[in-house]
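Hi R.,

Here are the chain sequences for the assembly we discussed:
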Amino acid sequence: MKLLTHMRRYRPSIQCSARSLRLVVLFASVIFLFSYTSLYAVPPATHIRVEMLRLTNTGAIQIPRTYCVPNDTSVGCTANAAIGVYPFGTATTPTVEIDGNTTSPYNRYLLDVIPNEMSPNLFQNAAVYAQAIAARTYAYFFAQSNVTINNSNEKQVFVPWTYENLSAANKSVISNAVASRNYLTMATSSNAIFSEFFADISLTTVEGDYSYLKAVPDPISSHPDVVMDGHGRGLSQKGAGRWARGTSSYQCYPGGACTPPPSQPHFKWSVLWSNSNQILTHYFTGIHVRDENRNIQTAQNRWVPLSLQWNTGDVVSAPMFLCSGQSVSVVIWLQNTGTTAWQSNAASVIFRGDNAQETQAIVTQSLSPGETATVTLNFIAPTTHSQGTPYEYRFDMKISGQYFSSQQPSWPMYITSNSLYLIPNCTKPPVVYLPLLQSTGVTQ
Amino acid sequence: MRHVGQKWAGPVILVFLLIISVLLVSSLRDQPISKETLLTAGSSQNQPSPLRSEFDQPAVGQAPVSPLPLPAADSALTLANYHFSDPGVVLKHDALIGIVQWLPNRYELLLQLKSRESAIDSIEILNLYDNTRKLLMHEQITGKPVWIDSLRSIAYLVPSQSQLANLQTGTASTETPDYGLWLLQDNLHQDKIASDLGWSIAGSNNIVWVVDGETQDLVEFNTLDRSEKSFVDLKTFGFAPNDPTSGFEIVASPDGSRLALFDNSQLVILELKSQSGIVVNLSPAESLQTETIKQRVFDAVWSPDASQLALILTTGGAGLLPNSFLALFDVASQRTTNIPLSYNHVTDVAWAPNSRQLLVMAVIGSQNAYDQAGLFLVDVLTNDYVRVLSDLELWIGEFGAGLAWSPDGANLAVYCPTLEYAQVCLASVKIEK
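And here is the predicted structure of the full complex:
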C-alpha cells in the first residue's frame, strides 16, 4: 500500500517533471536570450583603472614621477585642496566609474576629465559636447581591453574634484555634455574606437593607425596664429573650437578676444557648426555615434560644408544685400562625413531659401568617407522680402532621391542666415563695403 | 747664516702656504658647483660654498652675520649686461622640492619639501655656505610659509579641517585645535599665535596678513608685539575668501606698503598707508575684441621697489591652466600690459633687484608627458627677452616654486629635477657693463 501509494505518487511526478523540464528549458532560453540582449545593450565598459600621479598645472607628469598619497593636496591629486584632498586613500591606481555622476565624487571619471581637457570658459557648447563624447570613447577603448591609463595629458587629464571647482554655469555645461552617454564606434562594430585628440594643428590633420583616423582637411585652422600642438591625429580641440565658433583664428589669449573684432572680419569663417556630431564625423572618418545601449544615433549619409564662397562680394557667411531676382552663386567646399561612398553624379547639394525655388548642384566625382569636393550652386534671389529682416539660406544633400535631413536618424541641414536687404531694379550685384555680417549658423 | 736661515724658513713657508691656500679657495669659489659639492639629505659637511665670494662669510658654528648692504639697483642695466655661470647642483633629494625664497642674508634658501610617501611637507633652511640643512617643521600646511626675518621665524597657516573636508564628507567636521596662524622660530620654538585665521597668508618684515575665518576681514598681525587689527572688510571688494572655489590670495610687496589681493574674478591693489584700493582692469587697453574672455590672476610677484606687479594671467577657469601668460601692472599709471613671450605657459617669475628685468620660467616643450622648461630674461621696459641657461635641462615642477633670485641679484636658485631626484641648482649672476 505504501509502495502503491508511492508508485501512484511517483508516476504523476515523472509526468510533471517532464513538463517542468520543458518549461525550465523554455524559461532558461528566454532568460538567456533576455540576458544576452541585456548584455549586448550595455556600453562597452563601465569602469576604468587610472594611475594617479602628481601633475604640473599643464596636466603633465611632475618629475620625479610621484604617486598621489592619502590626503595629498598636490596638483593632479585634487583640483582644489580647499574643496577636497586626494579622495582615493592609499590606492594609487583606483578603479572609477566612467559615467559616475555629480553626487559621487569618489567614484567618477568623465566629470573630472572634460573641464581639464576643454574649458567651458573658452569653447562653445558644441565643441565641449564633442570633447565629452571623444573622452568617453577614449576611456571605453582602454577599459574594454582592461588597460590601465594614467591621469596626465599623456592620456586624458583626470583630476578629482574638478567638477566641484567649476562655476555653476560651467557645471551646467559639463553636466549637459555628459548627459547623452554617447560614444563613437566604427560603422560595423559597437566597440569603442581609439578616439585620439590633440590640441591644435594647421590646415590638415595627421593620419593614424586606424581607418577612422584619416588625415582630413581642416581649412578653418588657417590663421597664422595656429601652432601645431600635439600629435595631430583625430579630433583637433582648438579646431573643434573654431568650427563651433566660426572663426579661423583662436584669439582667446593672450588678450582675450575669441571672436573677431569688426576691424578684422577676415578672422571670421564662412561656416559654423553648432552640432557636435558635425565636429565628430568631420575629424573621425566613417564612424557612428551610438547611445549607451549601443543604438546608432547618426545617419548613414552625412555631410558638412567646409566653406562657402559667395559671388556677391561677401567674404563670409551669407549675403546681406541682393538685387531682386539676381542670379546668385555659391561655391561650396563639402566633405562626405558618412559611412558610405558616394558614386559620381549620385549625390547633390540642395539649396532652399525663403520664397525661393529649390535648386541643386550635382557632386560629379565619387567621394569616399572623409573625402572632399567643391560644387557651385546657383539660385535666383527672391523678388520680395521684408527689408532688413532675417533671411535663411538652407543647404541639404540628397542621394538616390533621399534628402539627408529626412533620413532616420536624420542629418542636420546647414542653415545660415542674415538680415537681407533687397535692392530693386539693379543690374549688377551690390558691392558690399561694410562687413556687418551676422551669421548664426543654425542647424536643424 | 745657518741660524738665520732656520729662523726665517718657518714663517716664509707659512706665508707661502697661506698664499697657496687663499688662491685655492678663490679658485674653488669661482668654479661652478660640481658633483663634489652635492648635498645629500641631512648632510652637514663643510663644503666649499657655491656662493660668490664678495660676501661676509660667517664662521661655521657662529650666528649668521648681518647681511651686507645691498648694491644699488641699477635701472640702466639691459639684457646684455647679465651673464649667468654654469649652474651646479646644491641639493639633491628624494622628496619634491619647492623653492620658497632666498632669506635676506643672501646665503640661505627657504625650501618646502613634499614627501613622496605622505602628504606632509617639510620646511627647511638650506645654508649655502656650510651646505647644511635645518629642518624647521614637518606638517601639512596651507600654501607657502612666510619668513619673519627679525625673529628668524616662519609664519604659516595650519589648514582648517572644514576647509579640507567640508565638501568631501558632505558635513561640517570638527576643527582641529591646531587650526590657525603659527610662528616657528629657527630654534624650533613653536607658537600658535592666533586662531580662526586662514585662507591665505602674506608677510613683510614683521607683519603678517591673514583673513579672519568668521568676519572675512583682512587682519594685520604684528609678530613682534603679537597685536592684531582688522582693517579691511574683504566683502566690500566683492571677495569671498571663505568660498573654497574663489581661489583667494594675498601677496605683499617687499616693503610692506602694498598688498595685491586676487581671486578667480578680480585683482585689487591695496595701499596700506591710505587703506585705499585700486580695482585692476585685467583686459589689455589695446584689445579690440568684441567678446572678452575673462582673464584671472594665477600668480603675482611684486617688484623689489613695489612699483610694479608681475602677473601670471590665465583665461582658464578652475582646474588646470589652458594657458598662463605674463603681464605687468604698473602702480603709477594703473595700467596692465601683456608682455609677449612665445610660449603658452609661464610658470614662475623672479625680479632682478633693479625692478626692470625679470627672470621667467616657461614650458618650452613636452617629452613623454613631462614638460620641458626654459628660462628667459625679460626687460619689462622694452619687452625684449633672451633665453638664459639654455644648456641646463630643466623640467617643470610645481608652478610658482621653481625659481628665486637672491635679493642682491648675485645668485639664482632654480628647481632642476632629474627623472630620479628632485634637485636645486645654483647659478651666479655677473653684471658686466
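Chain B touches chain A through 67 residues (CB under 8 Å). The longest strand of chain B covers residues 357-367.

Let me know if anything looks off.

Best,
T.
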